[in-house]
Amino acid sequence: QKEVEQDPGPLSVPEGAIVSLNCTYSNSAFQYFMWYRQYSRKGPELLMYTYSSGNKEDGRFTAQVDKSSKYISLFIRDSQPSDSATYLCAMSADAGTALIFGKGTTLSVSS
Amino acid sequence: GAVVSQHPSRVICKSGTSVKIECRSLDFQATTMFWYRQFPKQSLMLMATSNEGSKATYEQGVEKDKFLINHASLTLSTLTVTSAHPEDSSFYICSVETEVDEKLFFGSGTQLSVL
After folding, report:
1. What share of chain A is helix, strand, coil (3-state, %, to 5)?
2. Taking CB atoms and an 8 Å cutoff, what residues of chain B touch A6?
3. Distance CA A60, CA A16 (A)
4. Rounded Cα–Cα distance for residues A24 and A102 (Å)
5. Chain B contact for A95 (CB, 8 A cutoff)
6. Which of A36, A75, B66, B113 is deepest in the core (most CB within 10 A)?
């Protein structure tokens, strides 16, 4: 079993839809959870950063962490065509150490 | 947010040549930088951890003699792909750890194509 599992998609939704992206993981030591957005042939851009369990909201984005289930989610409300990208979950056990990434989910939002 | 500058953005070279990729932290000093590679439709795979003033730490399976990493200052790390071959063609990305809140920010990546 890989440390981090993420459905690669692709996921296609109409503009305005609510998008749910998810990752599961096996290492219970993970405490730091991040979501990155990556446009084609560009470096990943940090979207959300969460420590331990709970929810975090930033504009149209909400990140959820359920450590008991080893499951994290990213919700995008009122999705826009500009949200079309690959979304990568990432996590680590210690702050500042190299991250373990999911494979990324490709999202396409149509207008 | 933090700004990480990575150059060049794209390199096309002949097999057997060496290619140097630079990663600069523009907003802060970075004692630790990370180098990743990414194949098409695959996730980022950590290659090595670059520590300022000391030898880099390589992940299992990464040839340290082929992928030379130099972190000579607190704002610059370089990755040199020596004697590049077509199988080295990939997207290489650096990331920088902030000292304040220990988050990671990424460079824009370098697409290496070896002919």
Report:
1. 5, 55, 40
2. 43
3. 11
4. 9
5. yes
6. A36
Yes or no: say if B98 and B28 are a contact pair by the CB < 8 Å rule: yes
The rounded distance, in Å, linking the Cα atoms of B30 and A44 is: 18
**pLDDT per residue as tens digits for the range B5-62:** 999 999 999 999 999 999 998 887 887 889 999 887 778 888 999 888 888 999 999 9
Nearest CA to CA, how far is A91 from chain B (Å)?
Answer: 11
Chain B residues close to A96, C-beta within 8 Å: 32, 97, 102, 104
| Number of residues that this document lists for chain B | 115
- Across the interface, do A49 and B109 touch by the CB < 8 Å criterion? no
Q: Nearest Cα to A104, choosing from A1, A2, A6, A4?
A: A6
Return the H-helix or E-strand segment holding A109: strand A105-110
pLDDT tens digit sequence for B56-102: 999 999 999 999 999 888 889 999 999 999 999 999 999 887 766 66
* Cross-chain Cβ contact B49/A98 below 8 Å: yes
Sequence-distant (6+) residues with CB within 8 A of B85 are: B15, B16, B114
| Distance in angstroms (rounded) separating the CA atoms of residues A48 and A64 | 10
Q: Which of B108, B88, B82 is nearest to B96 (CA)?
A: B108
- Distance separating alpha carbons of residues A33 and A47, to the nearest angstrom: 11
User: 3-state DSSP call for residue A9?
Assistant: coil
Q: How far is B63 from B87, CA to CA, in rounded Å?
A: 13
Residue A37 touches partner B, C-beta closer than 8 Å: no
- Are B48 and B27 in contact by the 8 Å Cβ rule? The answer is no
